Amino acid sequence: MDAARLSDFETLVQYAAALDVTPAAQLPDSGAVAYGGAVVLNLPTGGAHLAHIADLAVTVNFGPADTPMTGTLDNFQAVDGSSLGGVLTISGGAFDPGADPGTAYQFTALLSGNLSDAGNTYVIDGDIAGDFRGRNGDAILGVVYGDITGPAGVDIFDGAFAATALP
What we know:
Helix content is 10%, strand content 60%. By secondary structure, it is mostly beta strands. The protein has one domain (3-165): Porin.
């Protein structure tokens, strides 16, 4: 994994974590906001759980929408320098803007897709959950978790993400 890329992710997490959870009244009630950032997933590829960093792009649709969240995770690179091909898709979702940050998240969405390396395919079926951070939802921060099915069978994975609103 590129040390600079990991350092950028850690800086982004620290930035978002330092911001307060955005109060529901300060979130937009219509329109869309695009976020860009990164995610680190602990994926059991090749036996051991390895940290993989990937690029994260999310669009949040505020107000009435059939699909509150859409996005992708791509450009996966592991701590050992190997990479995974494929794209994971963020879709669906639900908002709970008034959620108590100590017990629940302000949003959730589905995560799915296939990743591959050296002839192996890994099917991802998971969830992404997090909170809006900052005065007006300037950033998002949260967790990722789910199942991964590959040559060794079904296992679980987890991870974290952070992103900032794009201009």
